[in-house]
Amino acid sequence: MEFRHLGSSGLQISEITYGNWLTHGSQVENDVATACVHRALDLGITTFDTADVYANGKAEEVLGAALKGQRRESLEIFTKVYWPVGPDPKGKNDTGLSRKHVREGIDGSLRRLGTDYVDLYQAHRYDAFTPLEETMSAFADVVHSGKAHYIGVSEWTAEQIRAAHELATELRIPLVSSQPQYSMLWRIIEGEVVPTSAELGIGQIVWSPMAQGVLSGKYVPGQPLPEGSRATDQAGGATMIQRFMADDTLSAVQDLKPIAEDLGLSMPALAIAWVLQNDNVSSAIVGASRPDQLDDSVKAAGVRLPEDALARVDAALEGVVTSDPALVAESTPKQRVV
Question: Are 234 and 208 within 8 A, CB to CB?
């Protein structure tokens, strides 16, 4: 495993982060989830990312239980706040980034994770209905009370990041990270988010580097969907992957196979190594429904792809890459969830 600084901070994190979205507490049994976490540790992964909303809090509970007994100082545990969590019906203040929800959110996350603090506390989305000053003040309270060391954001536009960074500087709290979707097929952060973040000392912790599994090459145009794959998961996975399932995209992905073979990499390792070539990327988040899946993912750590390989990737995917920076703004909710 290789390690990188998170943005310009002093915090070092593993190049591969283990994330448990869509798995822990929902898709896989707890004993399998625990085995995945332990395999991640065995492979040198020290950084773990979750969110309060994943499986309505169960993902945090499973991760906390799986990490119990590990030396806390040797781990970097990240979580997020924004979406509603808890029993139904949800209350009117159970969503967003108000002072009330942020303060209650961190306490709930710490309880479920079984820890006194998280290393990184992230705004899961931008809240257009709460003054940014209120949100950043609440995050300052979290940091100053010792419940989080650093703060970050997820799926914020460059303009939103810049405004938050200005307030964070005034409040003397470390805004060090951005967590966007990023892959060979989804490059929308490259135009504005990455340059702004690099200027401000903010690092990317990217999710879905394998484009929901499409970049593994297992989805072949005209062939039945692999049994048990995300594209067959009607609980939510099939919806998330749909944007990448057009035949022209799947055909282009098949053209990546000889590139991976020439480099001695699997398709998943090539996809993860590709996002790690971006100097502003601090870590790539990977998940697993089986422990052995992580063995392949970690092979991307420390890999430097030659320029000719990067050019071959661009040529293979020409015409199927999404790169419009305006699409980042679509992640900001247009109305209250509750």
Answer: no
How are beta strands 203-206 and 281-286 bridged, if at all? Answer: parallel
39/241: higher pLDDT: 39
CA 124 to chain centre: 10
Rg (CA), the chain: 19
Q: What is the pTM of this model?
A: 0.93
User: Tokens for 74?
Assistant: 């040797």
Domains of the chain (ranges; CATH) run 3-331 (3.20.20.100)
DSSP letters, 178-239, are E--B--SSB-TTTTTHHHHHHHHT-EEEEB-TTGGGGGGT---TTSPPPTT-GGG-TTTHHH
Locate 157 and state its tokens: 């536009």
| Mean pLDDT value of segment 47-76 | 95
Decide if 153 contacts 288 (C-beta within 8 A): no
The whole-number average pLDDT for the span 251-267 is 96
Phi, psi torsion values for 92, nearest 5 degrees: -70, -20
- DSSP string covering 291-333: TTHHHHHGGGTT----HHHHHHHHHHTTTT-B--GGGGGGGS-
Write out the catalytic residue numbers.
54
Tokens 């609440």 belong to 138
